[in-house]
Write a structure and sequence with these properties.
By secondary structure, this protein is mainly alpha-helical. The protein contains 19 helices and two strands. The N and C termini lie far apart (about 70 Å).
């Protein structure tokens, strides 16, 4: 007679789920970054595939940027109030629905709306970091948060070559079916493995604050992202910036007078929190120029004298080492933060980013030097991006970690949008004719690298002005005294 199959005890199943919590959350972060980059290889062909203009197609990127910027702090606050796991699953679910819609349609209007839905995934990382704070013991928290932060670069590095291969050798809808399946897998894995956090902020959700923030951010980021195309002095751009100033000023006034605001501005005004957000803005700017400029430079025709004429697949492979570096160096970031404090990690990371741009300025013609320079920038980004959420975790109450990290991610997003606009403006003003086509000059690319390096130095300087953690200072002094006592004992022996 067959022996009965033993059924695992509930405690064993729960232990397995607990062990998989970090990998599942990291998978969600990688998936979010992949979703943001997979559309890039499609952009040159989408006007033909959707029977629309290049300007209209660009909204597939703009829509994701705008919705992500708006939804990240909103979903972060909702997670603090109604449950981080629940809101995390909703964000991944919206991303999956958006991907399925893209897989089913070739209508550009539907595709833009679907990409806006996918922008909800931008809240995945701050929500996951907040869950890690609530669920993990302090000795495991630092490395887990560092890994979670590095998933942004890992996913971006993986997404570009993966999407390019699918687009090159298969129907473009297949790419969205693949991301839909991955999204469904990620949502199911979170439901199965991740506990619902018991830490909640009770009260009423600030709907007016959410609407005001959305209106202000859309006006601001739309102006920044479309300024180069519509003209920085055009009435539409000036009207958008004026609207952003007025709406955000009114929103700030409303937040200070609301009993339970969407964003606690009094908390933001503390130097430790506010300066961390400023550093995030600078770091986002400096980081984004690396992938943006590198992709354009290596794909430039060889006839330019500096371009390598690489395909989009080869371009993705050039950026791929940076993603693996972020995975390898994330534990180092956690160790530096544990021993010296996250503000020192952030300052070192920003300095390394600036060093990477110095390498790019020294040589942007040889492929191996381009890869080395991009990898150095990736290393610095790993340290900086891993330190930023740790700074926030040390500075805010447990009940506000998701919303505070959401604001920090928002500042990075604004930095990236500003970087894109600034790089485009520099390259547009430094062009030469290649036949009948105007292409950026090498001098223009080097100016973009210089600009990003200077902003990275500003991020490092800002990090050093962030007040240190007194508890960490006491811990380091205690370790120093223990080391001195040990050395004295050894000398006496």
């Amino acid at each position: 007679m067959d022996q009965p199959v033993p059924i695992a005890e509930p405690s064993e199943a729960r232990a397995l789920r607990d062990r998989l919590t970090i990998p599942v959350l990291a998978f969600g972060g990688i998936l979010m970054a992949v979703m943001q980059t997979v559309v890039v290889p499609l952009l040159p062909d989408l006007p033909r595939l959707t029977h629309s203009s290049a300007g209209t197609v660009s909204w597939m990127v703009t829509a994701t940027l705008l919705s992500g910027a708006v939804l990240t702090p909103v979903l972060g606050r909702a997670g603090d109030m109604y449950g981080k796991r629940r809101v995390l699953m909703a964000a991944l679910g919206l991303m999956t629905v958006g991907s399925v819609t893209c897989a089913l349609s070739s209508n550009i209007g539907v595709l833009i709306a679907a990409r806006a839905l996918s922008g909800a995934a931008s809240a995945v990382v701050p929500l996951s970091i907040s869950i890690l704070r609530d669920e993990l013991p302090p000795e495991r928290r630092g490395s887990a948060v560092a890994l979670m932060s590095s998933t942004v670069g890992i996913g971006a590095a993986l997404g570009l070559p993966l999407a390019a291969l699918i687009v090159q050798y298969s129907n473009w809808h297949i790419m969205f079916w693949v991301t839909s399946a991955l999204g469904a897998l990620g949502t199911s894995a979170v439901w199965w493995a991740v506990r619902e956090s018991p830490v909640r902020e009770h009260g009423r959700f600030d709907v007016l604050g959410a609407v005001g923030l959305a209106a202000g951010l859309v006006s601001l980021l739309l102006g920044v992202s479309q300024g180069g195309q519509w003209g920085w002095g055009s009435p539409r751009i000036l009207a958008l910036f004026a609207t952003a100033v007025v709406v955000l000023a009114l929103w700030w006034w409303q937040q200070l007078r609301t009993e339970q605001p969407l964003v606690d501005l009094r908390l933001v005004s503390r130097p430790k929190v506010g300066l961390s957000h400023v550093a995030a803005l600078f770091t986002g700017f400096a980081f984004y120029a690396n992938s943006l400029v590198t992709a354009q430079l290596v794909q430039a025709p060889e006839a330019t004298g500096y371009g390598l004429g690489l395909s989009i697949v080869s371009t993705g492979l050039v950026l791929l080492p940076g993603g693996f570096i972020m995975l390898v160096f994330s534990p180092l970031s956690a160790r530096i933060s544990a021993s010296r404090g996250p503000r020192i990690t952030l300052a070192i990371g920003a300095l390394i980013i600036a060093l990477g741009y110095a390498v790019r300025i020294a040589d942007s013609r040889d492929l191996w030097m381009i890869i080395v320079g991009a990898a150095v920038v990736g290393t610095g980004t790993t340290l900086a991006y891993s330190a930023l959420p740790t700074l926030i975790l040390h500075a805010v109450p447990a009940g506000q970690t998701a919303s505070a990290n959401g604001v920090n991610v928002l500042m990075r997003t604004i930095g990236q949008a500003t970087s894109s606009a600034a790089v485009a403006a520099v390259l547009v003003h430094h062009t030469s004719l290649l036949g009948a086509v105007a292409v950026p000059t090498l001098h223009g690319y080097l100016l973009a690298f210089t600009m990003a390096g200077i902003v990275a130095l500003a991020a490092s300087a800002t990090a050093l002005t962030i007040p240190g953690d007194p508890a960490q200072g006491r811990t380091r002094r205690a370790r120093g005294r223990a080391r001195d006592a040990r050395d004295e004992a050894l000398e006496g022996a």
